[in-house]
């Protein structure tokens, strides 16, 4: 994806709620699910990652189903993909396999050879999760580039945004401190400053629950500080955090 295009998307995401990097990953999954449903269904080469992972993760399976339900109502893609996966799982079980996700071919053979029998099987990697991870890794670099190259424009934009979540801040600090020293310092200091303010508001919220201080009014900032802290820890938008949990 060209830099300019990613930059436009990133700056749009910064103006929406929640972690912009998480949001771009989520949007990428929604875009790519169409490819799995309609374009790659009959292409054995594109289906291989799906077979190696024994399907999508639960969250992306739901995305697959709801996308097809909303677009055509006929679940042809889901039937084609999961009939093949069901058959694959059945065959592997009949052969005495343990449904362990592993790359096939020469690399798969080497991997099995290398792995000690006591090592628990790797968690299957959902192909949509891989897309999300890749897009998020690129988006994070784009953010750091933007904060470095266009600091005068990008930093005020960032200051108004919800900002990056804990996992993405961790990723930035762990992987990119050397390449983007100023941008990572900015993120570190800005996040610490926000958390300091929010923790102070939360302490006030807690204090005012005490009967002795019942006459002191609660400010709006104190009322919602916990939500903004949770946005940081999860990457979710505030709206998503308080949405009712659906029944299983
Ligand atoms: Zn995030
Ligand atoms: Zn997934």
Structure, briefly:
This protein is mainly α. It has twelve helices and no strands.
Describe this structure in words.
By secondary structure, this protein is mainly α. It is 71% helix and 0% strand. The protein starts with a helix and ends in a 6-residue tail after the last helix. The model has no long low-confidence stretch (mean pLDDT 89). The chain binds zinc ion (ZN) (2 copies). One zinc ion (ZN) is lined by residues 56-57, 59-60, 126, 128-129.
The count of helical stretches stands at 12
Secondary-structure-based class equals: mainly alpha
What percent of residues are in strands? Answer: under 5%
Separation, N- and C-terminal Cα atoms = 37 Å
Q: Give the CA-based shape.
A: globular
Unreliable spans are none
Order of helices and strands: HHHHHHHHHHHH
Major sheet description: none
Ligand set: zinc ion
In helices, the fraction of residues equals: over 70%
Number of strands: 0
Radius of gyration based on Cα positions: 23 Å
Observed structural traits:
248 residues; mainly alpha; 12 helices; binds zinc ion
Summarize the helices and strands and which ones pair or pack.
Layout: H1 3-14, H2 20-39, H3 44-52, H4 58-71, H5 76-94, H6 105-114, H7 127-149, H8 151-160, H9 166-175, H10 181-208, H11 220-234, H12 238-242
Helix pairs in contact: 1-2, 1-7, 2-4, 2-7, 7-8, 7-10, 10-11
Bound molecules: zinc ion (2 copies).
